[in-house]
Design goal:
Elements: H1 3-13, H2 22-32, H3 34-42, H4 54-63, H5 69-83, H6 88-92, H7 96-100, H8 106-121, H9 135-142, H10 150-159, H11 172-182, H12 190-198, H13 204-215
Helix pairs in contact: 2-3, 4-8, 4-10, 9-10, 11-13
Length: 222
Amino acid sequence: MSSILNRHLIQKIFHMTEPKYWQQSKEFLSKVDPSLEGLLLKHDDYIISSRGEALETLLRAIVGQQISVQAAASVWGKLANKIGQIKPENVLSLSFDDLKACGLSKQKTQYLINICNHFISFSIKDHSHWEDRSFESVYQELITIKGVGPWTAEMFGMFYLLEKDIFPIKDIGIIRAMNQIYGDGNILSKNQIIEISEQWKPYRSVACWFLWKSIDSEDVQY
């Protein structure tokens, strides 16, 4: 079975769908940035999609902070096995030490608990809590949760809401990829990185998904 068929099968199993703007965004980015064009062609079968689970996306983003994709997958596997169905009540039913034993730091453990408490306090049970809202509104809500900073909120926007124009300026992977592609391995300044990213509007999220793909064989998925 081809890689494309495999991906479509996975999407069907997990109810994952690609963004409506996907093809249009790739055509746009190929035209405005020759350096991205080759990357898009190389990973032509790559498709980003949402898991459709807000809590899982946030918890995965916390787990993935400042560690590799492989390390995050290992920790998440242990955590998911212990939690079972990803519901705030199930997470909170476990002790602090049980959660931490999955490979989390004390801080990350507390952040997971804080997120679950927020979901319970606001009775967040499905997508209706997030729909028909601007990303700025969602962002401002999320960063009130201790442990959810700009990067985590941006990952939620990119991987759950599938917002098309988010640029996580402090993401280590994005910086690394851009240094390789646009700086010939040299360190680009923050201003240079921002200037390069401006040409990708309104599809900066899509550019970032492919930049991550360029430096990691495993798909980045929260």
